[in-house]
């Protein structure tokens, strides 16, 4: 029997190692293909070897973005069972790549958010190229480590730390814009808190308007279309502001009635959102009314109505993420490409199609190969999610970005999503603990009543036992009093034991919270130190 068990374990181990080997093989094949293409197509350009190696680092970074960051978009949908793991990966891969290709833009700021002053390089191209290469590799290595530790971290903060560390190594601490870095540090608090509060608010609203109602189906007919319409408004506004801003001039050329602006204003984006939201409202209202007769008047029945909106949310979040965060992989690569081909340093650089393809395909491949680990963590290892909780997280992800962008607050999409998950988990704890505290209070009052009864029984027994001329009824009463006193003492002991044994319900896993927050805090400094070390290593090898 033991031999058979060992053989089964060996078989599973071999199967697992075989799958890991295939994943590694696919990843290496993609990276080698990028390296070969960039070298062969640009072999005649001076410093083409640096560009080829940078392309390799960019491919590695893109795959790590797919493995780590994309989980925040689809993890809640998978955890709530609205999507299967396979379905989530397919949807996310298509929309991430689509967002990168369609709305990734012709131009990105190569030095993200003005982290460092490129003038400090004094027009010297070589240190600039080394710094960007070091930033890419350091950010990718940190993301790889975080993914292995099942810690969802911000890819933007990873590349920020990488650029900062390499910049300091190349030109000293004065190169860094510390005001910008302070804003980025503030996002560690702003993003999760905003995400958590908004997600908890929507979940509580859903509970009050539908779950706590006796006739849940009738309430759902009224409120589900409203909630989904709000989500539609938020996503269309979010996508217009964040996903379409890079192709907005082309849209204005086609739709001439739009204001002639370089990027959409909040008012225009909000109007677009309201138009789509109105259409969605009537479609969802009709759909919910048609399905109502087939649903159970339970929480589970209400949950089913949020399944399709969650699938759309996962797709739209992936599209917007691909449009924006592809720059984390290809921004430094575009800077290196521009520096190598032009021989100068520019704050902005045009992106060749092959560079965009490295970012878009790398994110999709990284997601498909290594994304499931973080998707499982986000979807189920922080707190238990169902459709309405996951819907609240998706709402938080879009609305928080809109609010933050209008207030000029720095936020991280990763921190918002995880903060939203924390928010719905802690709300559940609060609601249950509030109810539990009331129950315990009632039990404590009951113990006080039992003690009064016990005292009365004890006093009566003592009085009868001290009586000199006891009757037969007195003796029978004394015997009954002993029994009743024992029963009361047992009741009090049982109630006290129950109160002591009751612990506060914890729906959010504290170990996961501690690990994730620790990873957030050390992301920028860890990537910075690693990047500085890599910069000096590259400099030492070259010189």
From TrEMBL:
It is a multi-pass membrane protein. The chain crosses the membrane at residues 21-43, 49-70, 82-103, 128-146, 158-176, 188-206, 218-241, 265-284, 304-323, 351-370, 390-409, 415-432, 516-538. InterPro entries: Phos_transporter. Residues 447-505 form a coiled coil. The keyword Endoplasmic reticulum does not apply. One of its GO terms (cellular component) is membrane. It is found in: Membrane. Keywords: Coiled coil, Membrane, Phosphate transport, Transmembrane, Transmembrane helix, Transport. GO terms for biological process: phosphate ion transmembrane transport. One of its GO terms (molecular function) is phosphate transmembrane transporter activity. It comes from the Bacteria. It holds the Pfam family PHO4. Belongs to the inorganic phosphate transporter (PiT) (TC 2.A.20) family. PANTHER family: PHOSPHATE TRANSPORTER. This is Phosphate transporter. The lineage of its organism: Bacteria, Pseudomonadati, Campylobacterota, Epsilonproteobacteria, Campylobacterales. The gene is pitA.
């Amino acid at each position: 029997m033991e031999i058979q068990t060992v053989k089964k374990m060996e078989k599973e181990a071999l199967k697992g190692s075989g799958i890991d080997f295939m994943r590694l093989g696919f990843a290496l094949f993609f990276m080698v293909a990028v390296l070969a293409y960039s070298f062969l197509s640009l072999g005649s350009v001076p410093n083409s070897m640096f560009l080829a190696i940078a392309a390799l680092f960019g491919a590695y970074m893109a795959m790590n973005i797919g493995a780590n960051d994309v989980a925040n978009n689809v993890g809640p949908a998978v955890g709530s069972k609205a999507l299967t793991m396979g379905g989530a990966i397919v949807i996310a891969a298509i929309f991430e790549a689509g967002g990168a290709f369609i709305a990734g833009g012709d131009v990105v700021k190569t030095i993200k958010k003005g982290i460092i002053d490129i003038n400090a390089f004094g027009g010297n191209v070589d240190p600039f190229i080394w710094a960007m290469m070091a930033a890419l590799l350091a950010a990718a290595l940190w993301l790889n480590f975080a993914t292995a530790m099942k810690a969802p971290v911000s890819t933007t903060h990873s590349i920020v730390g990488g650029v900062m560390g390499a910049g300091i190594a190349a030109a000293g601490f004065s190169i860094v814009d510390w005001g910008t870095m302070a804003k980025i540090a503030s996002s560690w608090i702003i993003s999760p808190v905003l995400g958590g509060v908004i997600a908890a608010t929507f979940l509580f609203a859903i509970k009050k308007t539908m779950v706590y109602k006796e006739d849940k189906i009738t309430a759902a007919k009224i409120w589900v279309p409203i909630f989904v319409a709000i989500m539609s408004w938020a996503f269309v506004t979010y996508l217009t502001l964040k996903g379409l801003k890079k192709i907005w001039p082309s849209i204005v050329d086609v739709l001439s009635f739009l204001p002639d602006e370089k990027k959409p204003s909040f008012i225009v984006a909000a109007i677009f959102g309201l138009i789509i939201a109105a259409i969605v409202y009537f479609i969802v209202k009709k759909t919910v009314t048609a399905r109502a007769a087939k649903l159970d008047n339970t929480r589970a029945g209400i949950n089913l109505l949020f399944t399709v909106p969650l699938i759309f949310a996962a797709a739209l979040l992936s599209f917007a993420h691909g449009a924006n965060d592809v720059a984390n992989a290809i921004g430094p690569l575009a800077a290196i490409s521009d520096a190598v081909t032009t021989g100068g340093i520019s704050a902005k650089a045009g992106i060749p199609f092959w560079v965009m393809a490295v970012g878009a395909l790398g994110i999709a491949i990284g997601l498909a190969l290594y994304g499931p680990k973080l998707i499982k963590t986000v979807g189920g290892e922080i707190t238990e999610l169902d459709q309405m909780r996951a819907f609240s997280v998706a709402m938080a992800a879009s609305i928080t970005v809109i609010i933050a962008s209008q207030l000029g607050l720095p936020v991280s999409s990763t921190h918002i999503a995880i903060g939203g998950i924390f928010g719905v988990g802690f709300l559940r704890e609060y609601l249950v603990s509030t109810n539990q505290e009331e129950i315990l209070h009632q039990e404590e009052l009951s113990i006080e009543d039992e003690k009064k009864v016990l005292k009365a029984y004890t006093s009566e027994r003592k009085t009868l036992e001290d009586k000199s001329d006891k009757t037969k009824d007195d003796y029978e009463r004394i015997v009954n009093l002993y029994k009743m006193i024992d029963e009361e003492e047992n009741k009090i002991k049982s109630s006290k034991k129950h109160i002591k044994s009751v612990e506060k319900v914890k729906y959010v896993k504290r170990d996961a919270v501690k690990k994730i927050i620790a990873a957030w805090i050390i992301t920028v400094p860890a990537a910075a130190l690693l990047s500085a070390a890599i910069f000096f290593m590259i400099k030492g090898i070259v010189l």
